[in-house]
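[audit] Reproducing an earlier prediction to check determinism. Same input, same settings, fresh worker. If the tokens differ from the archived copy the diff job will pick it up downstream; this log only records the rerun itself.
[audit] input (221 residues):
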Amino acid sequence: MIPVRYRVCLMLTILAASCVSCTTNVMVAGSLPTPLVSKIPARVGVHFTDEFKTFTYKEVMRESGTWKIDLGQQNLDFFRNLLDNMFSHLEEVDEPNFGSPEAGHDKAGQHYFGRNGGLDGVIIPKIVKYGFLTPSISGLNFYSASIQYQILLYDQSGEVIGDWNIVGYGKSEGGSFGADDALGEATMLAIRDGGARIAIEMSQQPQVIAWVDKMKQAEGD
């Protein structure tokens, strides 16, 4: 006969193992309206890295098992609309190869810089960090998510105009949805919050104001 205390320990071990083996898949979906802001008068190329396009976060928690949060497509679609609303002209480009003889050309050899119909700069958004909390961890009755974005803006010569880190936050009541939907809602709101901060703050940055003024002066020459 197995002593009671050993049977209890065995049951707890099996329960913990079963929790870790469970996987909660979170697909971020829903409507993400972009903020209305005055467009920055610049022709800009945007490069979305493969990691940005397909970003998925995975974390294993002892209490609730494995969580997989797929931000990729929703985050990408939102940023395409966001940046298109932020600049007078936007187009997607391959990764710029600044600092080499091929600087200013994409991988297909197409020139995308220059005053005669080219672009004024390139912007590259990245996800630096994603994190979330569940009610079992925070002790509160909601799920929360945070996303730290890095926004890099380059001029025609490949010089960095700005390098900004912006964090978006979101939360969703735990009682209103299932765990996956609640965290998906919180993540979607974090994307929207981060995007709103980017849209509002970027045009007010001294580096961006100086960059736009320099382009205006060049057009007047």
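[audit] rerun output stored. Observation attached for the diff report: The first strand starts at residue 23 and ends at 27.
[audit] end
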